[in-house]
């Protein structure tokens, strides 16, 4: 039996999205016979990761999650250090010197690759990049080329629905959200009339969820268009619709939309297509040779198991922009191994593994960089719990930092001239954004709760001011 340690366990968590905050919160609440001292790092001055930079602004339910995360951080027992880029400002060696354990919760933020000809044409966009733009991510350009009248969105997950909804909704209906000014201006000028969403499998195999699907019908002056030939169900689909309530609900909603006349003469249409797989993004001719002018899809048919096979029949859709929303993918974390196929840090239940598959003492992962970009935000909690369980099991062997004082890492950041920010800094930025919302409300008829600050340097200045 090991005796209780004489100083708190120093833990660094890299990434202050839901995975990082849940991991910190669960450890502080876990039954243990030692103290903990946690630093939660993020490369941006704002916390919340994909909650701030990955969820569509018109999703009111995120407010509840933000409130819960805020409450955790506002308790004051977890130290937030924003504006610190792991791998650039601090290395793994630095962290090893200052912390006994490190949890990586860096998420998955880039678009999965789609390998079809034409994917690099002008007008072919990653869905995750577009999400970053409309969510005011500081690292994407302020301007987004919204010049297409007809747009394709590839994928049948919730991101595809978010992207399609944001592209088709009228900008004025988004003013009540926290969209930045540049996003409002960009969407306001968009000439879009038709947004086509393509699923490669059938209506019973969609990955999106019922609430998100129903939300599509709430956009004003946007008609939903469905096609009878896409409503094919094989044995596996019928079985799924009979046994899985979620699938049953979605097939029901889609089928109702198909049979009810959805044509209200709206100025914009959102088309939902199924059983079509992208084959090629087509280029224009002459002056438009480098630009998207269409999308070639192959019609698919169900093979009895819920999977699809090609029919050899192709359909070309005239579109001037293509958004690929076929899933997120992780990125390598400097100093650690990386599973390129899954886009995750190789790990066993959250214990980071070396090249030979052996756990590296003191290194852990949680969230999407641990398990891949699947599941709703709530699932991240269970995942964090598993990682914390491993850490608690390993704890007798952890205490290893040579320089564990809380001030030591601050001294290091300052000696390197890193403009780190704090929780108090985030509260200032938060207040500033709410103030911008109130000011905008004063001059118009729409109540704006918040207007996001986008440039990173402004975020840092306001936080440190
Ligand atoms: P996702 O749920 O994995 O959906 C990816 C979609 O892309 C699937 O329909 C998939 O089809 C399709 N796809 C993959 N490769 C393709 C290819 N080569 N050609 C054509 N289609 C392809 O991913 P996601 O939409 O990025 O969402 C990630 C996670 O975040 C999900 O758990 C999602 O629920 C969650 N999320 C939730 C919300 C929310 O509002 N609640 C919002 C955003 C994201 P197959 O099924 O045939 O593979």
Automatic annotation (TrEMBL):
Transmembrane segments: none annotated. InterPro entries: FAD/NAD-bd_sf, FAD/NAD-binding_dom, Ferredox_Rdtase, Ferredox_Rdtase_adrenod. Residues 10-183 form the FAD/NAD(P)-binding domain. Its cofactor is FAD. Keywords: FAD, Flavoprotein, NADP, Oxidoreductase. It is an enzyme of class 1 (oxidoreductase). It catalyses: 2 reduced [2Fe-2S]-[ferredoxin] + NADP(+) + H(+) = 2 oxidized [2Fe-2S]-[ferredoxin] + NADPH. Its EC number is 1.18.1.2. PANTHER family: GLUTAMATE SYNTHASE 1 [NADH], CHLOROPLASTIC-LIKE (PTHR48467). Belongs to the ferredoxin--NADP reductase type 1 family. This is ferredoxin--NADP(+) reductase. It comes from Citricoccus alkalitolerans.
């Amino acid at each position: 039996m090991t005796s209780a340690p004489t100083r708190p366990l120093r833990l660094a968590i890299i990434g202050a999205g839901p995975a990082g905050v849940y991991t910190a919160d669960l450890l502080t609440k876990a039954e243990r016979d030692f103290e903990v001292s946690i630093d939660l790092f993020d490369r941006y001055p704002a916390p919340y990761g994909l909650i701030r930079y990955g969820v569509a602004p018109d999703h009111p339910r995120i407010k509840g999650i933000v409130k819960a995360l805020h409450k955790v951080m506002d308790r004051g027992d977890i130290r937030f250090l924003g504006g610190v880029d792991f791998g650039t400002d601090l290395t793994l060696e630095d962290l090893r010197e200052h912390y006994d354990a490190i949890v990586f919760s860096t998420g998955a933020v880039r678009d999965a690759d789609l390998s079809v000809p034409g994917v690099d044409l002008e007008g072919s966009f990653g869905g995750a990049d577009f999400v970053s733009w409309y969510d005011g991510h500081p690292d994407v350009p302020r301007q987004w080329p919204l010049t297409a009248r007809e747009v394709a969105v590839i994928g049948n997950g919730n991101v595809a629905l978010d992207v399609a909804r944001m592209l088709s909704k009228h900008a004025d209906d988004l003013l009540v959200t926290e969209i930045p000014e540049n996003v409002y201006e960009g969407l306001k000028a968009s000439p879009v009339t038709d947004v086509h969403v393509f699923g490669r499998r059938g209506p019973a195999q969609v990955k999106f969820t019922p609430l998100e699907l129903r939300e599509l019908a709430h956009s004003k002056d946007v008609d939903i268009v469905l096609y009878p030939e896409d409503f094919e169900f094989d044995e596996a689909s019928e079985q799924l619709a009979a046994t899985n309530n979620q699938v049953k609900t979605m097939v029901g909603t889609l089928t109702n939309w198909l049979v009810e006349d959805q044509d209200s003469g709206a100025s914009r249409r959102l088309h939902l297509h199924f059983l079509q797989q992208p084959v090629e993004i087509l280029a224009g001719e002459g002056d438009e040779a480098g630009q998207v002018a269409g999308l070639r899809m192959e019609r698919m048919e169900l093979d009895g198991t819920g999977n699809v096979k090609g029919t050899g029949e192709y359909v070309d859709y005239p579109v001037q922009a293509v958004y690929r929303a076929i899933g997120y993918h992780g990125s390598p974390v400097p100093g650690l191994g990386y599973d390129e196929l899954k886009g995750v840090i190789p790990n066993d239940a959250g214990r980071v593994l070396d090249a030979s598959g052996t756990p590296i003492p003191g290194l852990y992962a949680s969230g999407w960089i641990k398990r891949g970009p699947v599941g709703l935000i709530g699932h991240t909690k269970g995942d964090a719990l598993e990682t914390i369980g491993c850490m608690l099991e390993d704890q007798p062997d952890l205490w290893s930092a040579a320089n564990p004082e809380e001030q030591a890492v601050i001294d290091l950041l300052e000696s390197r001239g890193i403009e780190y920010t704090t929780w108090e800094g985030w509260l200032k930025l938060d207040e500033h954004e709410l103030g911008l919302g109130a000011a905008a409300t004063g001059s118009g008829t729409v109540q704006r709760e918040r207007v996001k600050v986008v440039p990173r340097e402004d975020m840092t200045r306001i936080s440190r001011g």
